[in-house]
Design a protein that fits this description.
The protein is of the alpha/beta class and 225 residues long. It has a single domain, classed as 3-Layer(aba) Sandwich (Rossmann fold), CATH 3.40.50. 33% of the residues lie in helices and 18% in strands. It has 7 helices and 8 strands; from the N terminus they run H-E-E-H-H-E-H-H-E-E-H-E-E-H-E. It has helices at residues 3-14, 66-75, 81-95, 112-118, 122-133, 157-163, 192-203; strands spanning 50-53, 56-63, 104-107, 138-139, 143-144, 168-169, 180-188, 208-216. It has a 6-stranded mixed β-sheet. A two-stranded antiparallel ribbon has the order 5-6. Helix 3 packs across helix 5. The longest helix is centred in the middle third of the chain and has 15 residues, at 81-95. The protein is globular, with a radius of gyration of 17 Å. The structure holds zinc ion. The site of zinc ion has 8 residues, from loops.
Amino acid sequence: MTLKMFSTAVLDILFPPRCAFCGQLMDRSGDGVCEACRPALPFIEEDKILRQVGDFPCAVAFYYEGPVRDGIRALKFGKKSWRTRVFGRYVAQAAGQLAGQFDAVTYVPVSFRRSCERGFDQAQLLAKAAAREMGMKAERVARKVRNNPAQSSLDDPARRRENVKGVYAVPHPERAAGRRFLLIDDVATTGSTLSACAAALMEAGAASVVCASLAGGHPEKETED
Ligand SMILES: [Zn+2]
């Protein structure tokens, strides 16, 4: 038994591994996905991973349904870095389709108030994990400067676009100037949140922005953002 195998075995006893999607205890950590969830993961077909959000290309790993929807919802109830570690791997995998188009990683921030209430920012955790997979670091660049009603409370795409107007800003434009960003969020349905944040990066002088999210809707049935 190698030292790494031994320490993994010890960690599995101290912190029993759980499936990142359904939260069930697992015998061993493996890749963080249980045998029930694995065949049910709603991967987006390879040729549909890339979509367009506003003026920006976006790589989306999963459809927002089944175990993926459950896993993302569960993130709202606590800082679960064991979940985001696994989720970040899938985001990095999808972002592989945008390889060569970015050299910095950032994320769509939640408001200061929301982050205080929850104690963490889930897009930040996801971006950190995805960046680590790619040998990079996630940076804080945009800020949410206005609180707006949750996108999920609005059905109409035009109202969603209106709802995120002027919500994001870049307080230190020198952090954005001339850089090519990969912008990460957890869910992108109509993509209006991602495209509003991407537009703020561009306004601050970014050279380009491409996006990635863990989950997105089917183009024909868009329900949550
Ligand atoms: Zn599971």
